[in-house]
Amino acid sequence: MLEDDDTMQMYIEESYEHLEDIENDLLTIEKAGNNFYTELVNKVFRAAHSIKGGAGFVGLSNIKKLAHKIENVLGMMRGREISPQTEVISTILKAFDQLRFMIDDIENSETMDIDEHIVSLVGITTASLPDSQRKRVSEMVDVFLPGGRRVMEAPQFDIDQAEKEGKFIYLV
């Protein structure tokens, strides 16, 4: 974990800002059903994305992992691959509540058990995919630089989602 107290405090404050309207936004999305405003889902997605990115920067892998799984579900929702049914929204709300709890107790966040939330979020993701693609959620693939040097491992699902959204992967 990064030892810079100012950086960590800034991360915590920014995370609270991102979490501020999450419950109301998700309940509004649920109420709208399949007629939800994509921009509202994008707002919640950006909150999860920012929390994930900041967690990665300050070395909070448990928070990063949970935020990433939330982000996957929201990404599929904004792509209209997942419907904002009560069970889905409830699962996302519980996961965001866990993120808030982890940020409240940042010093112990790395040892907190998030498995139940991860299993629930992955379950929503896989249930929404065709049978032929379900294994891609947990399948890891190697990413290579031109010339053949392996630089990282990434979930195949994340690469698939990025391609669906017209995004590119850049290695810096």
Q: Could you walk me through the main structural features you see in this protein, from its secondary elements to its overall organization?
A:
By secondary structure, the protein is mainly α. It is built from seven helices and two strands. It has a two-stranded antiparallel sheet.
Topology, please?
Elements: H1 5-19, H2 22-32, H3 38-58, H4 61-78, H5 86-104, H6 115-127, E1 140-144, E2 150-155, H7 156-164
Antiparallel strand pairs: 1-2
Defining traits:
single chain, 172 residues, mainly alpha, two-stranded antiparallel ribbon, 2 strands, globular
Strand order of the largest sheet: 1-2
| First and last CA, distance | 22 Å
Q: What is the averaged pLDDT score?
A: 90
N-to-C order of helices and strands: HHHHHHEEH
Strand content: 5-15%
Largest sheet: 2 strands, antiparallel
Relative helix content = 55-70%
- Number of continuous helical runs: 7
Helix/strand-derived category reads mainly alpha
**Strands, total number:** 2
Low-pLDDT parts are none
Radius of gyration computed on alpha carbons: 16 Å
Tell me the overall shape: globular
